[in-house]
Amino acid sequence: MTNPTATSKVLPVILCGGSGTRLWPLSRSGFPKQFLVLAGNNLQQSLFQQTIERAQGAVKSHGIHAPILIVTNEEHRFLALDQLRELKDIQATLLLEPSGRNTAPALTLAALFAQDHGDDPILLIMPADQTIQNQPAFEKAMQSALQIAETGVIAILGIAPSAPETGYGYIKAQAQGAQSSYGMVVERFVEKPDLATAKQYLEEGGYYWNGGMFVLKTSVWLAALKEFRPDILQATTMAWQGKSRDTSGDAVFIRPDKELFNAIPDESIDHAVVEQCPGSQFPVEMVELDASWNDLGAWDAVWQVGHPDANGNVTRGDTVLQQTSNSLVYSSNRLVSVVGVKDLVIVETADAILVADRNNSQEVKAIVKRLEQESREEKNLHRKVNRPWGWYDSVDAGERFKVKRIQVKPGASLSLQMHHHRAEHWIVVKGIAEITNGDQVITLYENQSTYIPQGQTHRLANPGREPLEIIEVQSGSYLGEDDIVRFDDTYGRK
């Protein structure tokens, strides 16, 4: 087979904006599932990192060197950046959305970026929160998809259904005799079905799961969007024209205009464009992907792709099981012991525990909705929260006090800030701290401490070569994370 990109460049686009609420309490809005280590061939890498390497491997296998374009949320930019820096030889640009407007605006941002750089590259669109365990099979399918896209046709990867799944949309593709050289012609797309309809699809054949992976030329996407949803194209173009650009080390951040972007209609790639394409001037062909794909849409899916013991249990962390079968037990911080149960999901984190029937694990979303209605912090943040300068762990709290363990990376610093409602006492337990406290700048070493009065301007920095660790004791009438007035910040936060 000839090189599929003999005339076109390829731009892998990683869509990294999901929240993964069905995998609560491990996945939260402040640390969503794509950044978690859950499953796959490399259990030292997050789903996001595996997706980056999968995309890089796919283009390299065809003799192509391509930078990666990542579309993610402004809130997650440094989380994505930290995980990118753990990988080797990855050149990436991050497009930062100020809010989630679904995948059609995200892809349009990527297309406008590609258009600004000339050429007409083929966009290889991949969600960041899936697992594919057979890389050679993925690369083979992607080669066919690239061949299709080179001709100006939209290519989509479809997964042969192994069960009557109601959580996926389906692709109806024509029978074998109607195939093109590389893929099957797509007749139509169908919404997530009920169970009876899903069973019917399996009995009829010719239906495939829609995994949300597309391959198409930049010009084709923009032309199809102009045809079917010109409002999205116009609104996204206006936001793109107002973009700003900055850097953090070797990383490039591009931000569309916030106000204009927030006005873009919220719509998916499928609903906005692709579902309208069959039978139009924008044909779609499907390549079957048989590569052990899973979108990890619920805890039951994590159990399915795990490595079970003799009793069908999948475990992670410090666990002890007795007379237990076909269960998923996930421990993050402490010993979890389980006796005499079957078909359960048990997930332990520092501040929340989930126990669910494995077959009803999709309903975790209802728990997350209740937490949101009750304004519970456990919906959004873990007890341990990553920040661009390091992390903090809220180890204790009570009326009018909170205790945090804080670690600051070498050479990093927190913002110059002030709190209206709380005072803080800092004790250095490891490393060297440079502290701005009002008009004074002092250096503290292990076992030394200082007091930050309420309303005092202050900053914590690590001038050393080793991580700085402190214990922070807050006291006051209000201890929420939103009581921060920033005057200066290395990371552009406000």
User: How many domains is the backbone divided into?
Assistant: 3
Our count of helices gives 11
Main sheet overview: 6 strands, antiparallel
| CATH homology superfamily of the largest domain | Spore Coat Polysaccharide Biosynthesis Protein SpsA, Chain A
Helix content: 10-25%
Structural class given helices, strands, pairing? alpha/beta
Number of strands: 30
Tell me what the CATH architecture of the largest domain is.
Answer: Alpha-Beta Complex
Describe the overall structure.
With 494 residues, the chain is α/β, with parallel strands linked by helices. It has 3 domains: 10-294, Spore Coat Polysaccharide Biosynthesis Protein SpsA, Chain A (Alpha-Beta Complex); 305-369, no CATH class; 384-488, Jelly Rolls (Sandwich), CATH 2.60.120. It has 11 helices and 30 strands. α3 packs across α6. The radius of gyration is 25 Å and the shape is globular. The termini are far apart.
Lay out the secondary structure.
Elements: E1 10-16, H1 47-60, E2 68-73, H2 77-85, E3 92-97, H3 103-116, E4 122-127, E5 131-132, H4 135-150, E6 154-159, E7 170-173, E8 184-190, H5 195-204, E9 207-217, H6 218-228, H7 230-241, E10 244-248, E11 251-255, H8 258-262, H9 269-272, E12 284-288, E13 293-294, H10 299-305, E14 314-316, E15 319-322, E16 328-331, E17 336-339, E18 344-348, E19 353-357, H11 364-373, E20 384-387, E21 390-398, E22 401-408, E23 416-418, E24 422-430, E25 433-437, E26 440-444, E27 449-452, E28 458-461, E29 468-476, E30 485-488
Parallel strand pairs: 1-2, 1-4, 2-3, 3-11, 6-12, 14-16, 15-17, 16-18
Antiparallel strand pairs: 4-9, 5-13, 6-9, 7-8, 7-9, 8-12, 10-11, 18-19, 20-21, 21-22, 22-29, 23-30, 24-27, 24-29, 25-26, 25-28
